[in-house]
């Protein structure tokens, strides 16, 4: 989801109106302080190994097939998503200004639109980000403009736009951060973003052939397992899992690797470019795959996009189901979204440097 796609969706809407498994690995989990400036977030050692990447059954989307074997080396991963508190420390230390806090030029936006598109209103050029603005009734689930709005002034400091802030949400995952913002934080912290293969391997938590980080038990069975949408998306939700938007990190039980929120809460950036056909191209036995050299999204072929993983508080069985461990989503690198954050990793060879 990007500003240019919202613009296209809104244009289309107005045009239409005008036209009438296996048990978790038993091991001693190793947790350490990061050793970098963001000492609040502990990192967990993820032991290297091979696993089957991709959808485990018929519930997957086409880009989750074919299932294929991948090997990843050991790495360290943040035990939870980067929080507002941690991101604030980064900004205070560096003076960093996020993508959402910068206006864009008309030329930049026009370059991302199909030839012949009308010029955007000046309001689309202001600094800002996409905010979840739910309707109060059923809407077509193929029209994202029904629940996403570009709000001038929205940013990580003001996730819902002017008048909102993060007071009381210091331990919630930071949102409204672009791929570039996540990379900048990771570099400052002496880390990097995970590859898609590392992310899925870690999310599985040592389990094989399971749908979710906790196994295959349904979300609605037993205690709340993740922060997802409860009700009819996007107009009706409940606090069955304790929250209606983002939740503080570590609000739910961790997976087998002692990682929190690998399903739900917020989507997470990974380093790979998105190619709908990549799984068919990479084949079996790839070691530490880093994704395609060039991305391809048939729904938006003019844009290079990055993969995001894990689902969010907006995912439900009737919309997206992104909390499955194999589920993939994509967005452009400049995107700031109210349900998108990140966590970092560090290669074992670089730990302590």
What structural keywords apply?
paralog of FGE (formylglycine-generating enzyme), single chain, 353 residues, 15% strand, alpha+beta, 16% helix
Runs in which pLDDT lies below 50 for 5 or more consecutive residues are: 7-36
Derived structural class: alpha+beta
Summarize the helix and strand pattern as letters. HEEEEEHHEEHHEHEEEEE
- How many helical elements? 6
Q: Roughly what fraction of the amino acids lie in strands?
A: 5-15%
Helix content: 10-25%
CATH architecture verdict: Alpha-Beta Complex
> What is the 3D shape?
globular
Mean pLDDT comes to 87
Q: How many individual domains?
A: 1
**Total strands:** 13
User: In CATH's first tier, which class applies?
Assistant: Alpha Beta
Largest sheet: 4 strands, antiparallel
Specify the CATH homologous superfamily.
paralog of FGE (formylglycine-generating enzyme)
Distance between the termini: 36 Å
CATH topology: paralog of FGE (formylglycine-generating enzyme)
GO molecular function: formylglycine-generating oxidase activity
Protein name: Formylglycine-generating enzyme family protein
InterPro entries: CTDL_fold, Sulfatase_Mod_Factor_Kinase, SUMF_dom, SUMF_sf
Domain Sulfatase-modifying factor enzyme-like: 41-346
């Amino acid at each position: 989801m990007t500003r240019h796609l919202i613009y296209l969706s809104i244009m289309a809407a107005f045009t239409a109106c005008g036209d009438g498994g296996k048990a978790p690995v038993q091991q001693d989990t190793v947790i350490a302080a990061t050793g970098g400036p963001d000492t609040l977030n502990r990192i967990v050692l993820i032991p290297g190994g091979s696993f089957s990447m991709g959808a485990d059954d018929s519930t997957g989307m086409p880009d989750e097939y074919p299932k294929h074997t991948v090997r990843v080396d050991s790495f360290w991963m943040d035990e939870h998503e980067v929080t507002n508190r941690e991101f604030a420390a980064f900004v205070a230390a560096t003076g960093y200004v996020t993508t959402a806090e910068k206006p864009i030029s008309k030329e930049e936006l026009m370059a991302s639109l199909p030839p012949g598109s009308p010029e955007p209103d000046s309001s689309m050029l202001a600094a800002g980000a996409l905010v979840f603005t739910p309707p109060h009734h059923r809407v077509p689930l193929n029209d994202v403009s029904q629940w996403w709005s570009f709000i001038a002034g929205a940013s990580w400091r003001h996730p819902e736009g002017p008048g909102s802030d993060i007071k009381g949400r210091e331990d919630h995952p930071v949102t409204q951060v672009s791929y570039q913002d996540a990379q900048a934080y990771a570099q400052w912290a002496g880390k990097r973003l995970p590859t898609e293969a590392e992310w899925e391997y870690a999310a599985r938590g040592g389990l094989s052939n399971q749908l979710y980080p906790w196994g295959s038990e349904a979300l609605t069975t037993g205690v709340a397992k993740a922060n997802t949408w409860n009700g009819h998306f996007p107009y009706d939700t409940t606090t069955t899992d304790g929250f209606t938007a983002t939740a503080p990190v570590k609000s739910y039980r961790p997976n087998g690797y002692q990682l929190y929120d690998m399903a739900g809460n917020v989507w997470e950036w990974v380093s790979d470019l998105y190619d709908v056909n990549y799984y068919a191209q990479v084949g079996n036995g790839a070691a530490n795959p880093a994704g395609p050299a060039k991305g391809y999204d048939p729904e938006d072929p003019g844009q290079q996009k990055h993969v995001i993983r894990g689902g969010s508080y907006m995912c439900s069985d009737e919309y997206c189901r992104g909390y499955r461990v194999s589920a993939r989503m994509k967005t452009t690198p400049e995107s700031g979204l109210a349900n998108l954050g990140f966590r970092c990793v560090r290669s074992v060879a670089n730990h302590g440097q």
